[in-house]
Amino acid sequence: MIGKLKGAVDEIGEDTALIDVHGVCYEVHCSSRTLAKLNVGEAVVIYIETYVREDQFKLFGFMTALEREWFLILQSVQGVGARVALAILSTLTPSELANAIALQDRTAVSRAPGVGPKVATRIVTELKNKAPAFAGDATNIGFKQELGEGVAAAPVSDAVSALTNLGYSRDQAANAVAAAMKTAGEGADSAKLIRLGLKELAR
After folding, report:
1. Which of 14, 47, 155, 191 has the smallest set of CB atoms within 10 Å of its CB?
2. What is the pLDDT of residues 164-177, one digit of tens each?
3. Domain of 88: which CATH number?
4. How many folded domains does the chain comprise?
5. Are 40 and 89 members of one domain?
6. HEC profile for 6-52?
7. With 50 as the cut, is the pLDDT of residue 140 above it?
8. What is the pTM of this model?
9. Whether residue 78 sits in one domain with residue 34
10. What does the angle CA 47 – CA 53 – CA 54 come to, to the nearest 5 degrees?
């Protein structure tokens, strides 16, 4: 199996890129975020996930190993195939996705094309115990989407809002509350989340 390609970008399409490795061009399916980072003629290293089927042989490419891991873990959820997983990674970075799952923010996940409310709910529910292991830089890079009523549970939104009012950035507040939820559990009220969030921010 192909695990990584080192070569030059030969061509960039709508959802694929051609990577020239010593004269052999490999067609690689990528998220829009990955494609946006590529430039024709430039050297590149792409992490590869190889899919072999009876009727097809496809390469999926990612800029980081973490993104590739998320591509795989997303497909462990019923209703999420390669196309949907790529759509999610085109919409959310790995850190944003990890925070969305930690905050049980199905609305953020459902922003991805092809992801309906039911699939989004399954993703945040089934992956809530797996997300920390795949969070990567999520504790350092914040969840940039605004959290408001109807997006996350009320105690979560209230806690994020309270920490923001204390002078912390939205990113810092969202990360702190996500970490607090792992300690307090989903049923915690806003007061507990704020208290634990402040402890996280004081570290």
Report:
1. 14
2. 888 887 778 888 88
3. 1.10.150.20
4. 3
5. no
6. EEEEEEECCCEEEEEECCEEEEEEECHHHHHCCCCCCEEEEEEEEEE
7. no
8. 0.67
9. no
10. 150
